[in-house]
Amino acid sequence: MNRENIILTLDDNRRLTGKNLLSDQPGAIIDAFVNGIDKLIVVNIWSIYANRLLKAVNWPNEKIYSRIFEDGITIAISAPLDALYAACDLNEMAWQLTCEELTHTENQEEISVAIERLKLTIAEEANPKLLELIKQSKAHNIVYLVDDDEFSLGYGTTAQCWPISALPEPENINWSQYKSIPLAYVTGTNGKSTSVRIMSQIIEQAGQCCGVTSTDFIRVGDNIIDHGDYSGPGGARMLLRHPDTQTAILEVARGGILRRGLPIDNVDAALITNIAEDHLGQYGINTVAALAQAKAVVAKGLLSDGQSKGTLVLNADDKNLVALAPELLVNKCWFSLHEDNTTLQQHKQKGGAVCFVRDQQLLYSFQYEESIIIAVNDIPMTLNGAALHNIQNALGAIGLAKSLGIGDKAITAALSIFASNSKDNPGRGNQFKVNNAQVIMDFAHNVHSMEAMAVTTANIKAQRKFLMLSHAGDRTDNEIINLTKTALKMNPDFIIAAEVQPYLRGRELGEVPQLIVDTALAHGMKKCNIFTFNSPLSGAKYVVEQLQKDDLALLMVLSERENITALLHEKSI
C-alpha cells in the first residue's frame, strides 16, 4: 500500500435526528470519499478511534455504524439527543485521526486535549431536563417533538409547545391531555406530491382536516401555511404542532431521509410509489438499489419495539420494490395495474391487502373480501385511462387510505373529483383547452416521469402533436439525450426546445437546446419541424399561437410555470 496514493476526503458531516438508513437512533454521520486504499481498512481504523473517543467522553453505550459504497464510506455514531452537535465533532475527530494515521500525517491536536475539548462541548450542550421529559413521554406513551428551539407534546389540537430554555417539570404535566393523530408517510421517485394531494382530498371527503407536507408547500385544510420544500423534519414539526391538523400526510424525500432521518419515529401507514434513477451520486447513494434502501427507511416508522404497528403500501409493478420487500418485516399492501401480477396474487392468496385493476375498475381486497372502489374512466386525472401513472397513483392512494381505516365512500368521492389541473395538482399533468386543442403541462425531470407523460400523450389521439422540452444544465449530455429520447415516445409532429437560463449551471447559452435538436434529428424528425426559443414562456406562446382544433401539446415546464399557467388560463375556452 503506497500511502502517497491514499486520498481521503470528507464530503459531509451532519446530525441525524431520527430513524435513518444505518440505525434507529439519533447521532452523527459522515460521508467520505476513499481512494488508494481498501475501504474496509479505513472503516476499521475509524471504528477503533470512534469507540475510544466514545469511551473517553463517557458514552460507552453508544453504537457505531458504517456503510461502504462505490467510491467511499459512510460512518456514523449514535449519541444522546441533547448532544448531537458534539457528536458531529466527535465523529469528525475520529475521522481526522484515521486520516492522520493512514497518511502518516502529524496530529493536528493532542488526543488528550481534543477529548477535554469534546467533554466541554458536551457539557455546554447537555440538557438533562429535556432528556428526562423525553423519557417520561415514552413511559406515558405520549408523542413528542423536539428541535433546537422547542419541545412539544401531542399532535394537532392537543399540541403544546415550550421553549427549550423553559421546559416544564414532568410532575406538573397532565399527560392524559396529549393525543396523537392518524399519520402516514409518502415517498418514492415519482408521484409523491400527487399521492399526498389525493390523500388530502380523500381525508377531506372523510370529514377530517388534513395537513400535508410536500416538496411544494405545507398546507392545513385549504390554507397554505408556506410555499417551499417542507419534506423534511422541520415541515413535519410545523404541521403536527398546528392546532387544526386532524390527520397528517407527510411527504418524505430521499434528501431529507439521508440528511436527518425520518421526521417522526412512528406513523400508522406509509406508501412507496416507485423507485427510479434520480439524484444518484449524493450521500453515497450511487445505484437504484441503494436508492430503494434509502426510500424504504419509511418502513422503520411502522415498527415499534420490533413489532409491525402499521401497513406499508408498495407498488408490485416496481421490480426494485419487489426485490427489496422481503427485507421489510412489516405488514404490506401491494398494488398493481395487473390483477395477475405474481407478487400481488401471492399476497392476495394469503388474505393480504391488495389494490388492482379489473375490467377498467379499481378494486381493493383484504382477507379475501373484494370491493369495487371506482371505474378508471370516472377518475379525471387518468384521462380516460391514457395516464397509466395516475391509475397507479390512484391505486397507491386507495391502499394508503384503507390502511388508515378510511371508508370506500370517501375514497370514491375524492377520486371522482380530483383533477389534473393547476388547482388540485399544480405542475403535474395539468390540462387546459386552448383553441379547441388539448394542452398538458408537466414538470417531469427524470426518465421515469418523462416516460409516464410520453406514454400518456402517445395514447391520446390528436390531429397534430407539439412537444416543448427544457432540461437543466447540470444534467450530463447522456442524461439530456436520454430524457429527450424518452419524451419523443410521444411521437410529436413538432418539437420546441426552450432554453432555461436560470438553470444553465455552467452550460453555454444554446448548448442544451442544441442537444435536444440533435437528438430529435437523429430520431428522424425534420429540421423544419424543430424550433428553439430562449425561454419556456416564449416557447409556450409560440405553441399556443399554432394550436388548432383537435391538436395536442405537451409542455414540459421546469421554470416560469406560473406565467405559463396564467397564459394558458387566459387562452383557455
How many strands, what sense, and barrel or not for the largest sheet?
11 strands, mixed
Tell me the helix content: 25-40%
Distance between the first and last residues' Cα:
72 Å
Number of strands: 26
Unreliable sequence segments: none
Please work out how many helical segments DSSP would assign. Answer: 17
Mean pLDDT: 93
Strand content: 15-25%
Estimated structural class = alpha/beta
- What is the global morphology? globular
For the biggest β-sheet, the strand order reads: 11-10-9-12-8-13-16-17-18-19-20
- Rounded to an integer, what's the Rg over CA atoms? 26 Å
SSE layout and pairing:
Blueprint: E1 7-16, E2 27-35, H1 39-56, E3 64-69, E4 72-78, H2 84-102, H3 111-125, H4 128-139, E5 144-146, E6 150-153, E7 160-163, E8 183-187, H5 192-205, E9 210-213, E10 217-220, E11 223-227, H6 233-240, E12 247-251, H7 254-260, E13 269-272, H8 288-295, E14 303-304, E15 307-308, E16 311-315, H9 319-324, E17 331-336, H10 342-349, E18 353-358, E19 361-366, E20 369-375, H11 388-403, H12 408-417, E21 430-434, E22 437-442, H13 447-458, E23 465-469, H14 477-487, E24 494-498, H15 511-522, E25 530-533, H16 536-546, E26 552-556, H17 561-571
Parallel strand pairs: 8-12, 8-13, 9-12, 13-16, 16-17, 17-18, 22-26, 23-24, 23-26, 24-25
Antiparallel strand pairs: 1-2, 2-4, 3-4, 5-6, 6-7, 9-10, 10-11, 14-15, 18-19, 19-20, 21-22
